[in-house]
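Support request, please re-run this one:
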Amino acid sequence: MTHNQEMALEVHNMDFYYNSFRAVKNLNLLFKTQKITAIIGPSGCGKSTVIRCFNRMNDLILGTRLTGEILFHGKNIYDPDMDAVDIRRMIGMVFQKPNPFPKSIYENVVWGARINGLKNNLDELVEQSLKEAALWDEVKDSLHQNALSLSGGQQQRLCIARALAVKPEIILMDEPCSALDPIATLKIEDLMRRLSKQYTIIIVTHNMQQAARASDFTAFFTMDPADRAGMLVEYGETSQIFTNPKDQRTEDYITGRFG
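Re-run finished. Output below.
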């Protein structure tokens, strides 16, 4: 199979199960390289489940299984010879609540790099990662301070720096601003825009304004009333999804008529 360079991830005929319950069905979706794609939809439609499939985080939950394929550089990340730890290094994750380790700011940033065997130029790596995460100027004089002393918005940018330090290609963000105030939220959105010049970003958000402001493409998911499985309704450029959705369910959701 030839790999399409324009695509960072290709999802083909994916179903995902928690034991016998099918949580996501028949997902086909292409994610463009160095673009921001927002995944929106009502609670329970499988948005977080879907992005956790993209770096095999769901492997850690007993009784889960995936059918279909998710291609990264033309290879199915669920092939038996693919190493989940390698996948998670190349496809990083930032979670809903900032989760810095109870260590220094410096140790938080180098943590992943150390696990991956990097020993040299750690000072440079810390500076570069914090600069990329738009946090360096705020913390450069307190790198050995406990990361838990930072504000929520700073902690979230530190978690982004930690993800960047292992040099991923894709950054997954699961509601990265839901615990943050509006000012911190805008900082994260500005940061995403800057990072998308180098990285592919996939963000799950409940915030319609955020999806409209920050993403290039939007995928709208809903739950099939028949079997409660999450499913993709519509995918397209964000401007089209928000101004001229093709599916009535998309329009009802983004105008607040349901969901």
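The longest helix spans residues 182-195. The chain is about 35% helix and 25% strand.
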